[in-house]
Design a protein that fits this description.
Structural class: mainly alpha
Number of strands: 0
Radius of gyration: 22 Å
Distance between the termini: 64 Å
Order of helices and strands: HHHHHHHHHHHHHHHHHHHH
Strand content: under 5%
Number of helices: 20
Oligomer: single chain
Length: about 375
């Protein structure tokens, strides 16, 4: 009888119920909220489902993120190996290759002025950088936090790893991906507040056709120019342009399909679960996390506003030929931000088709955020 009782007692003490803290239960609740938003509300489920599930797992079983150094048998936890791919900047770079393979850069090539809108939307990053410095973060941490304003999760992870801010990776990545998924909620009020009904109803001229040669040369030229100036951007910009070259050259259909489908989704699973697994209660529930979440929202809002305001300036200079709404797409959330520009414009005039015009600033924003990350790395000597 005593053997049975001892066995049952041992089983009870092996359960997670007795070892979890209130913080773990809080993070489990947050994970469930994220799952609800992803599944019931459709907020970027491809991102939020793996992130939320990683968050759930690490707060129930912390050893799933156990490092090799802390292990008694020389093997780490499952998600620790996924996390190493983040730390080594492998997964963010592969994500960029998949984005390049899925995205048509034609609207940007047809309207090079879109680069200006993509650049303007990066203002939020620098606003958050100085805000983070004011709140007591060091330069490297401030830069890693500020890049959230680009609404680009992979770049946020990439820069945090390059600047040695792995302790902040969890909050930074969760904030970046959360704001990416909430683009349809955060951006429209800002866009409407900064534009008039007349401006939102502006119909833009159809973009010129872009030749196959232009589409092939674009990724090659951009890679050479950007990476010559900022070599540290090569992992991101280089992979983005490689993926796009796969798409446009027409001779590697199998590589295009793999990069934009199977490989992309495998990387999303690994990246999402490892990001979520960085949100243990001990690492996530602190004052710095609240500051990071607040700064990320400020950065994203400022970036959206800057893009729209610069769009208004271009509208005035072009005598009403540019709809300022496309400026909000200058953040890096592809293609969500462009769809939001289309949606807000269509609310005023259902016949107004802004999506392709907004894709130009949207693609420019991806490149712009990677360039800003390269600038930060150059400033800090990485």
């Amino acid at each position: 009888m005593s053997y049975i009782l001892d066995t049952l007692n041992g089983i009870v003490h092996q359960t997670a119920f007795l070892s979890l803290t209130w913080g773990n239960y809080l993070m489990i609740a947050v994970a469930c909220v994220f799952l609800y938003l992803a599944i019931a509300k459709g907020f970027e489920p491809l991102l939020l489902v793996p992130i939320a599930f990683g968050m759930l797992l690490v707060n129930i079983y912390p050893d799933i993120m156990l490092s090799i150094e802390d292990s008694s048998n020389g093997t780490g936890g499952l998600l620790y190996y996924f996390y190493l791919l983040d730390e080594w900047a492998i997964l963010p770079s592969l994500i960029f290759m998949g984005v390049g393979a899925m995205t048509d850069f034609g609207p940007l090539i047809a309207n090079p002025k879109s680069f200006l809108l993509g650049a303007a939307a990066q203002f939020g990053i620098f606003a958050a950088y100085f805000g983070a410095i004011a709140l007591g973060f060091n330069g490297q941490a401030a830069a890693s936090i500020a890049i959230i304003g680009g609404a680009d999760g992979p770049t946020s992870i990439f820069l945090a790893s390059k600047l040695g801010q792995m302790d902040l990776l969890g909050p930074i990545a969760v904030a970046a991906y959360s704001y990416m998924s909430l683009v349809p909620i955060i951006q429209p009020p800002i866009m409407k507040a900064l534009t008039t009904k007349k401006e939102r109803m502006i119909k833009m001229d159809q973009l010129r056709p872009v030749s196959k040669l232009e589409k092939i040369l674009f990724p090659i030229v951009v890679t050479m120019v950007v990476c010559m100036i900022l070599p540290t951007t090569a992992p991101l910009v280089g992979m983005l342009m490689l993926g796009n070259l796969f798409r446009e050259c027409g001779v590697v259909r199998q590589l295009t399909d793999t990069a934009s489908n199977a490989l992309m989704y495998i990387v999303v699973i690994l990246l999402g679960t490892s990001v979520g697994a960085n949100t243990s209660a001990e690492a996530f529930l602190n004052a710095d996390t609240l500051k990071i979440v607040a700064l990320g929202l400020i950065a994203f809002a400022f970036g959206t506003a800057a893009g729209v305001l610069f769009g208004k300036l271009m509208c005035a200079l072009s005598h009403g030929k540019i709809n300022p709404l496309i400026g909000s797409a200058g953040v890096s959330a592809v293609p969500m931000a462009a769809r939001v520009s289309q949606k807000v414009g269509a609310q005023e005039d259902p016949s107004n088709f802004l999506l392709m015009h907004a894709m130009g600033p949207n693609v420019a924003g991806v490149i712009g955020t990677a360039v800003v990350a390269g600038v930060f790395m150059a400033v800090f000597g990485v």
